[in-house]
Amino acid sequence: MSFETFARASQRRLYRTAYLLCGDADTARDLTQTTLAKLFQHWRRASAADHLDAYARTVLTRTYLAERRRRLRDLLAHSRPDPRPAPDHADLRLTLLSALAGLPPRARAMVVLRYWEDQSVESVAQLLRCSESTVKSQCSRSLAKLRAQLGEAHLYSTGS
After folding, report:
1. 84-88, 100-104, 118-122, 128-132: which range is least confident on average?
2. pTM score, whole prediction
3. Angle at the Cα of 9 (from 5 to 14), degrees rounded to 5?
4. What was the pLDDT predicted at 75?
5. Which residues touch 32 (CB under 8 Å, ≥6 apart)?
């Protein structure tokens, strides 16, 4: 398969994942383009991968995390930003995206990959280079935080 064919076929899917990770359309477009540029640069190695879509998702996620770390490092070096007030949206999708934005980048990546992208614990752990128990505990903590932030946590709990 040629790079152009792959890029056309997967661009929309990569953009969706990028948008879920960063929550901003412009940043998601940039992240998708950066991912495709990296894939193009290393196409010989990428095209030899057993699962090209998984390879591309790995590049996307790691690029997102690296950019977040870089941005955070720059912010901390220059100033202490005031926390943004959480917007009050009526639309559930916007509310969920807002709640996801409150999670740290790595935890957000785990939640998006595990529950939105429906990846297994093993594949998320491999993708983010951490243990399976880390994925389980981080997802559990992140989901609890999301439930508390979204309110009415008793609707989501499994306990009585």
Report:
1. 84-88
2. 0.55
3. 125
4. 64
5. 11, 14, 15, 18, 60
